[in-house]
Amino acid sequence: MIPREFEYHAPKSIPDALGLLKQFGDEAKLLAGGHSLLPMMKMRFAQPGHLIDLSRIPELKGIRESGGTLHIGAMTTENELIWSKLLQEKCPLLVEGARLISDPQVRYKGTLGGDISHGDPGNDHPALMLALGASFVLKAASGERVVPADGFFVGTYDTLMKQGEIMTEIRIPVPAPGTGYCYSKLKRKVGDFATAAAAVTLRMTGETVREVAIALTNLGPTPLKARAAEDSLRGKALTDASIGEAAQLAMSICDPAADQRGDAEYKTAMAGEMTQRALRTARSRASK
Ligand SMILES: Cc1cc2nc3c(=O)[nH]c(=O)nc-3n(C[C@H](O)[C@H](O)[C@H](O)COP(=O)(O)OP(=O)(O)OC[C@H]3O[C@@H](n4cnc5c(N)ncnc54)[C@H](O)[C@@H]3O)c2cc1C
């Protein structure tokens, strides 16, 4: 299908983009990589009269570390995440997750900020952000706020972001050296969204779990933080039995929509399987 007619704007700075957002209000939409927005426009689920392209704003790009935090510009593409030596060394979970997103074409254009802002429970970065304890910088004409990933996703295609705001940066605390990690994603074929996926970060002291985070993709209207599963593991040995119990607790919070990828029962079972696999792989990668 063909989108509705729109005007295209290409601001060169954040203040200019914020000015356009203010000027056109509800008629405006921000354009990042376009790999979610343009399909929505072609299907006429989104019908903006004005598209504000963020790709010519240099401040929205780049990956740097400062004071124990990784700062990633919202317009950083999936491939730029994958190619980043800094992330490969300091935050390999993000690299592993980005490599599992769609296909090379999407990864050249799709951005971290767009993937998060879209609020699609099928997108992979939201659960990765929950597992990594990320926060998001949201700028408006009236000022800036920083919101944690935990609580940001409020429903399908719905986040805490307000009209008039731009996500400018993603902040991730640098995982402690020796943190185990894994993003375990089941998909029907290369390029597909997750049938079920689990993101895990894990710190061990000897055989005991010191800290763990577990987050799930495409298993409810938002990404899910599996808190009871995490609580069940802290301070315990990571055995087949404790991993199995955590997987059951993760499954108990799932509420997936049935679709061509499977019914709710199958997807929930796969959530348990992905959680177990992610925990086992994270354990094998964690320093003890
Ligand atoms: C065939 C196909 C397969 C895919 N498979 C996967 C997959 O397996 N996993 C996955 O995670 N994703 C997948 N995607 C989605 C893809 O990763 C998109 O690129 C991503 O969801 C949106 O990022 P974008 O940069 O393209 O944003 P756009 O499509 O340009 O924008 C998406 C939404 O976010 C808003 N937005 C964008 N940037 C900002 C910002 N900085 N501040 C505020 N709002 C903003 C836009 O206004 C729009 O509403 C797939 C897409 C396709 C076409």
Number of helices, counting only DSSP H or I runs of 4 residues or more:
11
* Small molecules held by this entry: flavin-adenine dinucleotide
**Low-confidence segments:** none
Mean pLDDT metric: 97
Helix/strand-derived category reads alpha+beta
What portion of residues is helical? Answer: 25-40%
Largest sheet: 5 strands, antiparallel
Taken in chain order, the helices and strands follow as: EHEHEEEHHHHHHEEEEEEEEEHHH
Strand order of the largest sheet: 4-5-10-6-7
Describe the secondary-structure layout:
Layout: E1 7-9, H1 14-24, E2 28-31, H2 37-42, E3 50-53, E4 63-66, E5 69-73, H3 78-83, H4 85-90, H5 92-99, H6 104-109, H7 112-117, H8 125-132, E6 135-140, E7 143-148, E8 153-155, E9 158-159, E10 166-173, E11 180-186, E12 196-205, E13 208-217, E14 224-225, H9 227-233, H10 240-252, H11 264-285
Parallel strand pairs: 1-3, 2-3
Antiparallel strand pairs: 4-5, 5-10, 6-7, 6-10, 8-9, 11-12, 12-13, 13-14
The structure holds flavin-adenine dinucleotide.
Would you write up a description of this structure?
The chain is α+β, with helices and mostly antiparallel strands and 288 residues long. It is built from eleven helices and 14 strands. It has helices at residues 14-24, 37-42, 78-83, 85-90, 92-99, 104-109, 112-117, 125-132, 227-233, 240-252, 264-285, and strands at residues 7-9, 28-31, 50-53, 63-66, 69-73, 135-140, 143-148, 153-155, 158-159, 166-173, 180-186, 196-205, 208-217, 224-225. A five-stranded antiparallel sheet has the order 4-5-10-6-7. A four-stranded antiparallel sheet has the order 11-12-13-14. The chain has a three-stranded parallel sheet with strand order 1-3-2, covered by helices on one side. Strand 2, helix 2 and strand 3 form a beta-alpha-beta unit. The model has no long low-confidence stretch (mean pLDDT 97). It binds flavin-adenine dinucleotide. Residues 29-37, 54, 74, 101-102, 106, 110-111, 113-115, 117-118, 120, 123-125, 166-167, 191, 193 line the site of flavin-adenine dinucleotide.
